[in-house]
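Onboarding guide, step 5: your first structure request.
Type a short instruction followed by the sequence, for example:

Predict the 3D structure of this protein.
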Amino acid sequence: MSKSGQHPPEPAQLLLVEDNPGDVRLTREAFKQGRIENDLHTVSDGSEALDFLHQRDEYADVPRPDLVLLDLNLPRKDGEEVLEELKDDSELRSIPVIVLTSSRAEEDVVRSYELHANAYLTKPVDPDEFIETVRAFEKFWFSVVRLPPEGEQS
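The system replies with structure tokens like these:
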């Protein structure tokens, strides 16, 4: 029970689109240490990400993510293609997308925002800094920001 006497909120549904197993592990670790109850779903390429988001094929029964963490450098379909398709879809465009990538290239930052990414984070190389970044992001997105309720897209 929370202080207000209400039941704890449902776990946040997060989709991590990341092909580097080390970064997946670090992200999981950061969320495990965090205070936010969450279900972290992972897919390793852009095509799988779109299947998950559209709840197609093997992902027919997955929950709609509250937030997507998206790497840009992915096999099959890259992160920009995923972002573009997601934000072009009236059903999905309200899902916030955080680009979490090792690219520091100015054009990647600009292009991500042009494609309506909600934030752009550069992955630190140091594992402890990486975990700190994910935890700071978690605190901001789940304690400070109000996310759109499901089904109320305009």
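Each response can be followed by summary notes, for example: The chain has a mean pLDDT of 86.
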